[in-house]
Amino acid sequence: MRILVTGATGFLGGHLVRRLLDRGDNVIAVGRNADRLEALAQAGADTIAHDIALAPLPPTDRVDACVHAAALSSPWGPDQAFQRANVDGTRHVLHSARARGARRFVHISTPSVYFRFADQLDVREDQPLGEPVNSYARTKRQAEGLVLGETTLDPILLRPRGLYGVGDTALLPRLLKAAASRALPLLRDGAAVTDLTHVDDVVSAVEAALDLAPMPNAGPERRVFNISGGQPLAIREIVEAAAARTGLSIRWRPLPVSLALGAARVSETICRFLPNRPEPPVTAYGIGIFAFSQTLDLSAARDILRWSPRIDFQTGLERTFATVSP
Asked: Which end of the chain has the lower number of beta carbons within 10 A, N or C?
């Protein structure tokens, strides 16, 4: 297939482009990082340097499919930045996919749309969604609505949970950076569990979505899929296992959830009024991730996409922290 991939210079996008090239697809890689685009060109991809938040893509050849992996993913930032990147950007990519005759549109969304300050186990795709927890969740939810409205593109939405792997700059690095500088909050005696997803499993889920037979009459309930490692893990276990790989000693500080949330919200309020609105040391959303469980039901992915995770957490950690001999 000839496949257009946005966010190709990001963590997931880079892994995906290389996998598609390995399997023989013709890839147009779209991103903003010139050095990474050059590396993808050397690997065999056609490349376009472009910010999809600003405008639709310049004209290119027709494509068979589009994978939209570009997004602004952060627990903090200006509302307008999330709106431009995640909503306007998605609208621009949909326009470009239509113009190039794509017959399948795979959209990378997020389980953050499910988030609540409460335990949620085996969350299904059809669960009613509550009030978005932050601008990221709100704009990704809006983007989902745009994509599901494009039935001519035969859309598929993936909601991968907690990506990690070689090249990750968000999940494990942020946790380890925080752990190196201060004691981490131990909330509810560390009872919260979650499921992470190795980037290679997300890549294989995208492959399954690209290769799925056309579904011209399918409704939204057959187009949205949870993706995860399928292995519930204690937050404390995740942090300590990752820290052990780097020789870092974790310090825990037991705290009541109400106190931690209150402090985070005060910090957020202060940062909103400071010049440049700096990110607070911890957000309410971050406290919620540590305090409350969220795991995903993968039945739809197994039954419709014929996809299941293959990489358990220990194997994923080994891949992530493996050193390459000279």
From this structure: C
Helix orientation angle between 11-22 and 199-211, rounded to the nearest 10 degrees = 60
- Tracing tokens 């946005």 back to the chain, one arrives at 6
Say whether pLDDT at 326 is over 70: no
Residue-wise pLDDT for 17-58, tens only, equals 999 999 999 999 999 999 999 999 999 999 999 999 999 998
Q: What is the pLDDT of residues 294-304, one digit of tens each?
A: 999 999 999 99
Q: Residue 325's pLDDT is what?
A: 35
Residues 6+ apart with CB under 8 A from 141: 113, 129, 132
- 27 pairs with which residues across the strands? 3
Whole-number mean pLDDT of the chain?
Answer: 94
Distance, CA of 86 to CA of 163 (rounded, Å): 18
Between residues 259 and 178, the one the model is more confident about:
259
Closest CA to 241 of 169, 312, 157, 145: 312
Specify the 3-state DSSP secondary structure of 9: coil
Q: CB within 8 A of 155, min separation 6: which ones? A: 104, 105, 106, 107, 147, 148, 223
Report the alpha-carbon distance of residue 139 to residue 135 in Å, rounded: 6
Measured CA to CA, the distance from residue 284 to residue 108 in angstroms comes to 24
Question: How many Å apart are CA 258 and CA 220, to the nearest integer?
Answer: 37
187's tokens: 């909330």
Both tokens assigned to 186 = 């131990």
Residue type, 164: Y
